[in-house]
Amino acid sequence: MGMNTLMSTDFNFPGQKSVYKGKVREVYTLENDVLVMVATDRLSAFDVVMPKGIPYKGQILNQIATKMMKDTEDIVPNWLMATPDPNVAVGKACEPFKVEMVIRGYISGHAAREYKAGKRMLCGVPMPEGMQENDKFPEPIITPATKAEKGDHDEDISKEDILKRGIVSKEDYEVLEKYTRALFQRGTEIAAKRDLILVDTKYEFGKTKDGEIVLIDEIHTPDSSRYFYADGYQERQEKGEAQKQLSKEFVRQWLISNGFQGLEGQSVPEMSDEYIESVSNRYIELYENITGEQFVKSDISDLQNRILENVTAYLAK
After folding, report:
1. Which terminal Cβ of the chain has fewer Cβ within 10 Å, N or C?
2. Beta partners for residue 25, in sequence order
């Protein structure tokens, strides 16, 4: 098969000042405080970028994130200005806060692992006794993480430590908390309409040149969020069965079963074209479930040129 994927970019847009390459996205900073964010087809798991890309993944993540931003802009301002290409978002440059606002409605993933290890506090927030994995918390809990410098894992941190260490000021942090709860509430409502449960997610915020706090990065995507299918959730909990998830957990599980968890000395298992195509199809399924819309594949015959032309035409306006 060997379909075209966007593994890296090397654009030189008009007015370009710098470029930052993250694990999955490449961010071009232009003059006039404009950012061009390109979502590649790279797949990262256990903080390692896989050698092969996933067809349409960049388009899928970008379109879910930009759609969710439009669906929440009435409650929380965001950085987005335009989406001139399926893989691209253009918006206002911001100074990012150095924390990720993680919010959990259910005890799952990292929280469940900590709980099983006997911990009853996560990021300074108490977790009730007697919970089993994937149970709903009485109230959603905010468990922030510090943004790791390149290559390091993000670390749990409490609100108290964030304020004590001066990572975020008290008044700004209160806005971040308020926005995080409002977004999670809206995300939960959107998910419920699609027969999904928004389990946990993370939000990132920045400050514009005018000092406005805005939502940045991605939101409510399968890479930044965990979803369960609502149908059968209760029965599965009662029987102590695993929940049906919509997230990239299926990739992590495949890697684990093939002896890879990103540890020293482990090498990434070979992904066949068939496996790559199955991951691409899963991402399309995620898109359709999360948005309630049919996924329209963009023309990927010449991704680099398509993006360059679309962005350049937009900037010329």
Report:
1. C
2. 39
